[in-house]
């Protein structure tokens, strides 16, 4: 059975991912790396409370079969572009680098639609820069998922709800199908499927539909 490592376990995607990993017989241990204690109890679960600003204190724990990375924040929650970069890029890159150095063979990253290191927009440039950086680490299997807007269960983000509603309206008349909102549970399922696929190399995964 595989040992899964999860970064971003308390986010919307991360919660769905962990729930599925714990019920999947292919995974015998699920290690999550979080800032504070969580109220989950499962014999397969190992909770590591870490300081993301001190990776040298816990990098050695990033050892297993696959690292799932879905850590992220919003510019509103972070307070500045610099603070968001630290969470979305620096923390994730540091973990990926340590995992690769520890021999983790498979890496699965949640990026974003339109991610490009050459983008004029901060968010997609940040995501694209991370995509490029983790590919260069040389994981035998590296999967980068670029989902459109996500449908989060119980989301309280007003702007997100409005955006999803607008996109659904456009989709209904055949417009903007490449940006069709994706439920977080579907994204989690895709991440696990890729990790179990046995495929090697780098694969960029989009979710556009005709």
Which key phrases capture this entry?
single chain, 210 residues, alpha/beta, 9 strands, globular
Give the overall average pLDDT: 89
Order of helix and strand elements from N to C terminus:
EHEEEHHEHEEHEHE
β-strand percent reads 15-25%
Largest sheet: 7 strands, parallel
Based on secondary structure, the structural category is alpha/beta
In helices, the fraction of residues equals 25-40%
Rg, nearest Å: 17 Å
N- to C-terminal separation? 37 Å
Q: Which descriptor suits the 3D outline?
A: globular
How many H/I helices?
Answer: 6
Write up this protein:
The chain is built from six helices and nine strands; from the N terminus they run βαβββααβαββαβαβ. It starts with a strand and ends with a strand. The relative contact order is 0.14. About 10% of the residues have low confidence.
Quick structural summary:
The longest helix has 21 residues. Helix 4 links the parallel strand 5 and strand 6.
Write the layout of secondary structure elements.
Blueprint: E1 2-7, H1 12-22, E2 27-34, E3 45-49, E4 66-69, H2 75-78, H3 81-101, E5 106-110, H4 122-135, E6 141-146, E7 150-151, H5 158-172, E8 182-183, H6 184-195, E9 201-206
Parallel strand pairs: 1-2, 1-4, 2-3, 4-5, 5-6, 6-9, 7-8
Helix pairs in contact: 1-6, 3-4
């Amino acid at each position: 059975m595989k040992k899964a490592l999860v970064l971003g376990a308390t986010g919307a995607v991360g919660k769905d991912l962990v729930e599925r990993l714990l019920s999947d017989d292919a995974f015998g241990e699920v290690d999550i790396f979080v800032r504070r204690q969580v109220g989950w109890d499962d014999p397969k679960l190992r909770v590591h409370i870490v300081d993301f600003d001190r990776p040298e204190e816990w990098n050695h724990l990033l050892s297993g079969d696959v690292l799932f990375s879905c850590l992220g924040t919003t510019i509103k929650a972070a307070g500045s572009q610099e603070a968001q970069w630290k969470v979305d890029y620096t923390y994730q890159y540091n973990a990926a680098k340590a995992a690769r150095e520890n021999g983790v063979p498979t890496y699965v990253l949640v990026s974003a639609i339109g991610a490009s290191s050459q983008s004029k927009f901060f968010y997609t440039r940040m995501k694209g820069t991370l995509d490029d950086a983790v590919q260069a680490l040389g994981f035998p299997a590296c999967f980068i998922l670029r989902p459109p807007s996500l449908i989060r269960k119980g989301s309280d983000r007003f702007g997100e709800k409005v955006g999803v509603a607008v996109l659904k309206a456009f989709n209904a008349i055949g417009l903007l199908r490449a940006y069709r909102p994706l439920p977080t549970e579907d994204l989690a399922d895709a991440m696990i499927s890729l990790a179990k696929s046995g495929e090697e190399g780098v694969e960029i995964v989009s979710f556009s539909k005709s």
